[in-house]
Write a structure and sequence with these properties.
The chain is α/β, with parallel strands linked by helices and about 350 residues long. The longest helix has 22 residues. It is globular and about 60 Å long.
Length: about 350
Amino acid sequence: MSDSQSRGRGLRRIVAVAAVAAVTLGLAACGSDDTPDTATGEANSSDTRTVETSRGEITVPAEPQRIAVLSAGLAGYLFTLDAPIAITDTRLLGVTNLDGGFPPQWAEKAEAQGTEELPAGETLNIEAIALAEPDLIIGGGQGFSAVLAEEAYDQLAAIAPTVLIPSSVNTWQGELEAVADAAGESDKVDGLLEAYEDKVAEVKESITVPGAPVAYFLSLATDEPAFIPPTAALPELLASVGFEADDVMTKANNPELYGSGDSFIISNELLTQVGDAPVMFVVPVAGRSLEQLQQDPLYTSLPAFAENQVYELPATSYRPDYDGVMGTLDLVEETFAQ
């Protein structure tokens, strides 16, 4: 690295630290529409574009070079798009936790890019984000990390242009398009969606569905019985290749959906009523595996368990990103090949 490059990087680090100090002291934060170019210190309209968000139009780099990602659930899309990620959250539901480490499905890409891990906690680590010197911040989506990003928006916008994907965007296709738009990678989306459609057609043609309808059981750390409603991402994905989802909502007396609306918990007493489908998928999300559930008399009496028509899917199939979708289709094709 030359002396001038070293001085430039040092200057940017000073600017980043100063941004943290300003936020901490409660000074007026500059809006992301007026964020200067991190290399030159002044805005350059030819190198920027606008993105429509729930907070209005945000001016972002036309070709960002250092993206901070505040949700591991969104990072997978960006790695698929080959976007440059400087730092990212690593907490992926059912896959990783507070111990750190990249989720296996994109660990190699993160290490190849030199991506840093965003330290996990009950609040966002604003200092770590600033010190990563991002020129764009992307957050939002589903889960706890999205809440943290909303709460810290003004602090984030003082560091770099910040785009938060609304929780109302609750399909993987919608998230892919929104993230690609924010990162300036929208030209790659059509090709990815075409590959997905081709995969769906291939799987639908090559498998034999074992029966219908199908229930989707979510295995939680609390050991409370939980199910995934037919309108959630996983049942809709497998419906596209021929798996008819059971109406577990009606059987459970239309319970309140949890969090992002993609699960609900029932009592043990309702399990035989709600879980009576002839075929079942079990998705362990920090809970017991299918093998462990098969040792529990509470579950062995269910029709799918009794007839050996219950199958396990990975946690990445529950709220899948693009790679999670394609990986789930690969597994279904392998499991139910004619």
